[in-house]
């Protein structure tokens, strides 16, 4: 086993006794790093020597080190690639909560608003068709959203996209929708079914079974999209790309309070 030796040397200059120096022992601790992040160095010393080592070899938020500095991606700033606070300007309207992301933000809107900044008020834009014997209402919204946006909106209302899994429900919706003045440019209404592994399923998990497909679809569904009612074909079913903007129908349970018009 090796032994570490410490040699004590007495320094005398012009007959003046100064001190004893312990060679091999550091006389200072590590200094602060030369950079906060990116790539820096720190040092320590003793009387006749010094050494250095790398430190703070990292950047925040996906930044990469280039020439001993942080090369920062969009949406970040500063020597360490700190996130730029997009929510600082309060972009979410009507009580929406701003969620900070890298180079963007998301708004978590309250149930009566939608849009990137919760700017669209949907409260007045819906038509209700209720089946009181089944304690449910269908809320028809003529404001185009993609399927996921419609699904999330219905969930914020404590409901879900309409599950039209019986002939009785289908007939009730057909009869109700025929009374509306529908924008002909928007001929589809999202309902609560989408493809999972090329099989159309209701949001309840049940497989979609129906013969009410628009002409030309039938058993030739592609298994890539989401389900909608088509106004041009008497509200028969059609499979669309889920990112397509369309009107939508929420299904909600009702109570005495909602029946009296106090809950929307």
What does this structure look like?
The protein is mainly beta and 264 residues long. The protein folds into three domains: 34-84, no CATH class; 86-121, Laminin (Ribbon), CATH 2.10.25.10; 122-259, Roll (Mannose-Binding Protein A, Chain A), CATH 3.10.100.10. The chain is 9% helix and 39% strand. The chain is built from three helices and 20 strands. The strands form seven sheets. Strands 13, 14, 15, 16, 17, 18, 19 and 20 form an eight-stranded mixed sheet that branches. The radius of gyration is 34 Å and the shape is elongated. It starts with 6 loop residues before the first strand and ends in a 5-residue tail after the last helix. Residues 1-23 and 258-264 have low confidence and may be disordered.
Radius of gyration: 34 Å
If helices are DSSP runs of H or I spanning 4 or more residues, what is the number of helices? 3
Whole-Å distance between the termini? Answer: 82 Å
Mean pLDDT: 79
Major sheet: 8 strands, mixed
Count of domain modules: 3
- Shape label: elongated
What is the total tally of β strands?
Answer: 20
SSE order in H/E notation?
Answer: EEEEEEEEEEEEEEHEHEEEEEH
- Write the CATH homologous superfamily of the largest domain: Mannose-Binding Protein A, subunit A
What structural class should be given to the helix and strand makeup? mainly beta
Oligomeric organization of the protein chains: single chain
CATH class of the largest domain: Alpha Beta
CATH architecture of the largest domain: Roll
Instruction: Give the percentage of residues in beta strands.
Output: 35-45%
Helix content: under 10%
The third-level CATH topology of the largest domain is Mannose-Binding Protein A, Chain A
Signal peptide: 1-24
Keywords: Disulfide bond, EGF-like domain, Glycoprotein, Repeat, Signal
InterPro entries: C-type_lectin-like (IPR001304), C-type_lectin-like/link_sf (IPR016186), CTDL_fold (IPR016187), EGF (IPR000742), EGF-like_Ca-bd_dom (IPR001881), TSP1_rpt (IPR000884), TSP1_rpt_sf (IPR036383)
Domain C-type lectin: 136-251
